[in-house]
């Protein structure tokens, strides 16, 4: 059993994934953390040193390596499903779960965390909302290819167990 959590940055994939894994005795992996370990530098430094194209290629390679993990939850980066054939690959090798958060909640989550997020580091409070709306519109069709779509507003720990038990 392998779950891939998808959704926009700041949607709670890592937070929800950790809780869900803990409650169900599953291993938890954060894709960005796996990339950082392999590259020996933070994602923001990878972006600034090598650029987004390099990062996306590394991300796809590290994603493919998660096939060796069993009984786990993998929290993917917000862009992971949108590049190469990552979404199709995740759907073939596991159960994809889209954490469908509202733009307003995403804004709230990201506003004070911009420094660790290379794609929004230069956004102002005024432009961040537009960036989120535009990217969500652009990416939503890919996210919605996930096998399960969850609205985190209605989730509690029993909700995680319900989803897990339905699969």
What is this structure, in a nutshell?
The protein is built from eight helices and five strands, in the order βαβαααβαβααβα. The chain has 167 residues and is α/β, with parallel strands linked by helices.
Report on this model:
There is one protein chain. The protein has eight helices and five strands. With 167 residues, the chain is of the alpha/beta class. It has one domain: Rossmann fold (3-Layer(aba) Sandwich), CATH 3.40.50.300. It is globular, with a radius of gyration of 15 Å. The model has no long low-confidence stretch (mean pLDDT 91).
Layout of strands and helices, then pairs:
Layout: E1 2-6, H1 13-24, E2 27-30, H2 31-39, H3 43-50, H4 52-65, E3 72-75, H5 86-93, E4 95-99, H6 103-111, H7 125-143, E5 148-150, H8 157-166
Parallel strand pairs: 1-3, 1-4, 2-3, 4-5
Helix pairs in contact: 2-4, 3-4, 6-7
